[in-house]
Write a structure and sequence with these properties.
globular, binds magnesium ion, alpha/beta, binds adenosine-5'-triphosphate, nine-stranded mixed beta sheet, Rossmann fold
Length: 269
């Protein structure tokens, strides 16, 4: 654990949030994404649990960790009125997608908050799969100009709460070209406009797998770095740190901590 701790300290150096006034979010009265064309799907709780998505209701032991993470992340983001949170990791399989889904659900349970998940892992989009939602259309069909955002977004309902998902899809040509394209900038601007008072969580690919993440990072407000015990080395985290100098890291999650350390679902620094 010491090496992981040392690594996350390194990753977080440079994170010096200034004190600013709290700016709380509030639900919009009416926005285009709530138009008739937005599909609404009720999520299957058994499917969620089978995929480690647990933060849809209060009271679960494991969901408690995501609620703590939510509160810490929102406190940091509110200070700066930030809206876009990128979730990435050094290497594959650290738990980014599980973290993104749980964090969004935990935010969606707060009375005056709403969350959108945008699956920008164009190499391996899995958010729709984990939530049990259809992945057809999605972000590429919006980038291609085939459909407006309102048609590609899905309203995912679980219990009395809901969140929005823009599913991912795999492009036929290079994903990093899409990430750095002007069309992507236009899409992000549209998301900012349409989901003005939502926290938007972007599930990204691993940082060290290509240049997808470094292409999109300058357009993000903040980053949450998920490291996996047994998956992320100190060298990997140091390598990520080089690319994270200009984007504030709001939290580093050490995921997949074994049961003998008393947190199963992760630790936050
Ligand atoms: N805290 C955890 N404890 C145990 N297993 C976990 C934990 N979080 C995620 N996993 C499992 O690890 C695997 C990878 O999780 P996930 O898909 O979220 O990772 P990822 O970082 O998004 O992967 P990729 O880089 O392939 O996109 C999944 O099988 C998931 O159920
Ligand atoms: Mg993933």
């Amino acid at each position: 654990m010491d090496s992981i701790r040392q690594a996350v300290e390194l990753a977080r150096s440079g994170d010096s949030p200034a004190h600013q006034e709290f700016i709380g979010g509030s639900k919009p009265i009416a926005t285009a994404h709530e138009a008739a064309s937005t599909r609404e799907v009720r999520l299957d709780v058994d499917h969620l649990e089978a995929n480690r998505i647990v933060a849809f209701a209060t009271g679960s032991e494991s969901g408690r960790y995501y609620d703590m993470l939510r509160t810490q992340v929102l406190q940091e983001m509110d200070k700066k009125n930030w809206q876009f949170l990128a979730i990435t990791s050094p290497t594959a399989g650290c738990g980014k997608t599980v973290t993104a889904c749980n964090l969004a659900m935990s935010i969606a349970r707060l009375p005056e908050r709403s969350a959108v998940v945008v699956d920008l892992d164009l190499r391996k989009p899995m958010v729709a799969n984990y939530l049990g939602l259809p992945a057809s259309g999605g972000v590429l069909s919006v980038l291609d100009g085939q459909v407006p955002i309102s048609s590609a977004v899905i309203k995912a309902v679980v219990g009395p709460n809901s969140l929005f998902l823009l599913p991912g899809s795999v492009p036929t040509s290079g994903s990093s070209e899409w990430m750095s394209s002007q069309t992507m900038t236009t899409l992000l601007q549209a998301i900012k406009r349409e989901f003005r008072s939502h926290t938007v969580i972007f599930d990204l690919p691993p940082m060290l797998l290509g240049d997808d993440v470094i292409s999109i990072l300058p357009r993000m407000d903040a980053v949450l770095l998920v490291t996996g015990v047994g998956s992320s080395s100190v060298a990997d985290v140091k390598e990520c740190q080089k690319h994270l100098e200009r984007v504030p890291v709001v939290r580093v999650v050490v995921n997949k901590v074994s049961e003998d350390v008393d947190t199963y679902y992760g630790s936050y620094y």
